[in-house]
């Protein structure tokens, strides 16, 4: 167990923390806003039911003849939630020496870690999609690659999100490939969207920049592409000191959940970009 003692929190850091709490880096949870979340408290497994589209009824009905009855094709996607979490342990002396900032820093770090971890889990699940599209030019993302993914999703009858677009999660390195195209559509981004990772829209996609996306991959998906099964909602935990002198305190987060693809048809992964 890592214990953040006064010696670990150096005098320089203590002086800095006495002025303000500064956190290095921040990748908030960007993926959950596009996930189909199913919460079943204390469930061992959680299922998502996916029904296949029916054949189009293009043949005229015959007068006096009963219409054909079609069968409903159902597939069940089951996810098994697992435990996730992390804790920071601080000592009373570290808290005193930092002017009361150690606990505050621990809380902010743990909160960021919870969001970053869930974002990474969601992105990793999406990247496992088996419907792949090779980039037209190896090592470069082009708008034509996004266009191919858009056409595939539309052809599969996948629903778009409430803004009328699909979503593409893109590594920052790939965003730079299409930055020239972004210049003309930069007006599509407002401040609330920007702070959630949206950098614009292109070829029918809301483009989300996310460093958790593997470089060279772009994850394109529509509604019901990503699922999040929650048995216990992730949340912050504060455990009071439980040692013999009450000197150790624990700040952490804990949740029981799992991410996975609900409808594989709703996900396209551009590779080699």
Can you tell me about this structure?
The chain is flat and about 85 Å long. The model is unreliable at 12-22 (pLDDT under 50). By secondary structure, the chain is of the alpha/beta class. The strands form 3 sheets. The chain has a 6-stranded mixed sheet, sandwiched between helices. Helix content is 25%, strand content 30%. The protein contains 7 helices and 13 strands. The longest helix is centred in the middle third of the chain and has 27 residues, at 101-127. The protein has helices spanning 11-19, 92-97, 101-127, 143-155, 172-175, 179-183, 191-195; strands at 3-4, 36-39, 46-51, 74-79, 82-91, 132-134, 166-170, 198-202, 205-209, 218-221, 226-239, 248-261, 267-271. β11 and β12 form a beta hairpin.
Main features:
alpha/beta, six-stranded mixed beta sheet, 273 residues, 7 helices
What's the overall geometry? flat
Q: How far apart are the termini?
A: 41 Å
Mean of all residue-level pLDDT scores: 83
Give a quick account of the main beta sheet: strands, pairing sense, barrel closure. Answer: 6 strands, mixed
Structural class: alpha/beta
What integer value in Å does the Rg equal?
Answer: 24 Å
Identify the strand order in the major beta sheet. 6-13-10-7-9-8
Q: Oligomeric form of this entry?
A: single chain
Low-confidence stretches: 12-22
Order of helices and strands: EHEEEEHHEHEHHHEEEEEE
How are the SSEs ordered, and which strands pair?
Blueprint (H helix, E strand, L loop, with lengths): L2 E2 L6 H9 L16 E4 L6 E6 L22 E6 L2 E10 H6 L3 H27 L4 E3 L8 H13 L10 E5 L1 H4 L3 H5 L7 H5 L2 E5 L2 E5 L8 E4 L4 E14 L8 E14 L5 E5 L2
Parallel strand pairs: 1-5, 2-11, 6-13, 7-9
Antiparallel strand pairs: 3-4, 5-12, 7-10, 8-9, 10-13, 11-12
């Amino acid at each position: 167990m890592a214990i953040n003692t006064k010696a670990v929190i150096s005098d320089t850091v203590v002086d800095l923390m006495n002025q303000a709490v500064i956190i290095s880096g921040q990748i908030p949870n960007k993926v959950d806003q596009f996930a189909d979340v199913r919460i079943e408290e204390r469930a061992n497994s959680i299922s998502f039911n996916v029904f296949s589209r029916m054949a189009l009824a293009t043949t005229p009905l015959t007068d006096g003849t009963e219409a054909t009855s079609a069968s409903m094709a159902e597939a069940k996607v089951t996810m098994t939630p697992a435990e996730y979490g992390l804790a920071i342990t601080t000592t009373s002396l570290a808290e005193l020496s930092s002017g009361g900032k150690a606990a505050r820093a621990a809380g902010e770090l743990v909160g960021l870690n919870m969001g970053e971890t869930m974002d990474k889990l969601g992105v990793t699940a999406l990247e496992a999609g088996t419907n792949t599209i090779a980039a037209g030019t190896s090592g470069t993302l082009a708008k034509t690659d996004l266009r191919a993914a858009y056409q595939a999703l539309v052809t599969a009858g996948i629903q778009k999100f409430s803004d009328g677009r699909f979503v593409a999660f893109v590594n920052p390195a790939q965003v730079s490939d299409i930055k020239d195209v972004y210049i003309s559509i930069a007006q599509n981004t407002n401040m609330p969207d920007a702070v959630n990772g949206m950098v614009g829209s292109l070829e029918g996609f809301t483009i989300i920049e996310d460093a958790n996306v593997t470089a060279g991959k772009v994850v394109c998906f529509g509604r019901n592409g990503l699922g999040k099964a929650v048995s216990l909602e992730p949340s912050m935990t504060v455990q009071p000191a439980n040692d013999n002198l009450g000197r150790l305190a624990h700040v952490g987060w804990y949740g029981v959940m799992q991410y996975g693809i609900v409808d594989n048809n709703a996900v396209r992964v551009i590779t080699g970009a």
